[in-house]
Amino acid sequence: MFDKNSLINLLESNSISYKITEHKPLFTVEDSKNLRGSIDGAHSKNLFLKDKKNNFFLVSFIEDIIADLKKASVPLNSKKLSFANEDYLMNILGIKPGSVSPFGLLNDKEKKVKFFFDQEFMEYEIVNFHPLINTSTVSIAPNDLINLIEQHHSKVEFINMRDFQK
Question: N- to C-terminal Cα distance for the chain?
Fold first, then answer.
């Protein structure tokens, strides 16, 4: 099971450039805006979702978007989306609430989760995600993140979340 330290080791062993910033625990986008200081790049909102058939989805998008789950169900090819509970979060992604990020996919050994990445992230040189714990932020190039996820989990699906906001 990956944790922050093993994630950092993986980034380094793959020669992936990153920066890590330590901070107080962040549980919401508002917490992040207030406490993150001057971390450059795009900041994210990450939703771990499930549907009525127990299909799982991780959707990562720009923090200022307010997603409409009903609208978002169309590109996810699903119906009746809801937030996956803490047990699913821990058992599948190995993380606690407040720490959801694409790095959790490294713990999804059964590849149950389909990952959707907001294409708007590609407009930034740096994107920011928690490294499996909400007391740190990893800053990484979006292409490096995508390559890492595709190498260790599955193909990344792109989505334009601005089309699916409230």
Answer: 36
